[in-house]
C-alpha cells in the first residue's frame, strides 16, 4: 500500500491525501461486498499514521491571487466564458466558499457536492452542511448576482440533482460532480495566474478589510471561520445573518461594478 502515496506524500500532499482516502473507501466497499477480507491497509488511524509523516503543521504555500481592484474586470471576463465550471467559479467567488463546498470531498460522506436540495430559492439562502470549521451547519445568504447564476443553472439542470454537474447526460446531472481541477482549468484558459481558493477568499478578505465597513466578526462569519466562536446554524439566523447578507450584497455589487467612464478632454 505504501508504494502508492509515499512518492508524492510530501511534495503533493493534497493529491496524496485524496488518493489514500479513495483507496480506503474502495477497499472498504470490497470488504463489505465480500471481495476481500481483513483489515484495510489504506486506513490512516492505527495504520498509515505510523508509516507516513503527518501533514499537520506543515508549511502552507500561499498562492498568487488578483489585487482586489482587478477582480471586477476578471468577473466581466469570466461571464464571457461558457461552461458549467465557469458558472461554478463565478458562484464560488460570489459566495466566498471553498471549492470543496461546491464539488464535495470524495472521501467524506458528510461533505457532498452542492445539490439543489441544499438551496432554498424562495428564501435566497444555501444551507451549507458540515464545513471545515463549523460542525453544525451554516446558512449562506445569496446575493442577487448569486441568484442569477442559480437561475442559469436551473435552466440547464431542471433544478434536480447537482447544481454544478460534471456532465450533460441525465445520470451525470444527478450523480457526477465536477472534477477537482475544473475551476482551475477555467483560470488557465483565461491565462490568470492564481487559484480559485486564493482569488475567492484572499481577495474577499483584503477587500472587506480595506473597503467595507463590516465588523471583523461578520467578515469571519462570512468566511465560516467559526472555530473560535462556535457559531450555530440557529444563531446564524440572528443579527449576524442580516449583517452577512448586507456584506454579501455589497461584495457582489463590487464584483459586478462597471469600469469607470472615460473622461473626454477636448
Description:
There is one protein chain. The chain has 266 residues and is mainly α. The chain is 42% helix and 4% strand. The protein has helices at 13-32, 71-79, 84-95, 100-103, 144-157, 170-175, 182-189, 196-210, 216-222, 239-255; strands at 119-120, 125-128, 138-141. The longest helix has 20 residues, at 13-32. It is globular and about 60 Å long. The model is unreliable at 59-63, 131-135 and 226-236 (pLDDT under 50).
Which descriptors apply to this entry?
single chain, 266 residues, hpI Integrase, Chain A, 2 domains, 10 helices, 42% helix, 4% strand, globular
SS content category: mainly alpha
Label the CATH architecture of the largest domain. Answer: Orthogonal Bundle
CATH topology of the largest domain: hpI Integrase, Chain A
Counting H and I runs of at least 4 residues, what is the number of helices? Answer: 10
Nutshell version of this structure?
By secondary structure, the protein is mostly helical. It is 42% helix and 4% strand. Strand 1 (119-120) and strand 2 (125-128) form a beta hairpin.
Secondary structure elements and their pairing?
Layout: H1 13-32, H2 71-79, H3 84-95, H4 100-103, E1 119-120, E2 125-128, E3 138-141, H5 144-157, H6 170-175, H7 182-189, H8 196-210, H9 216-222, H10 239-255
Antiparallel strand pairs: 1-2, 2-3
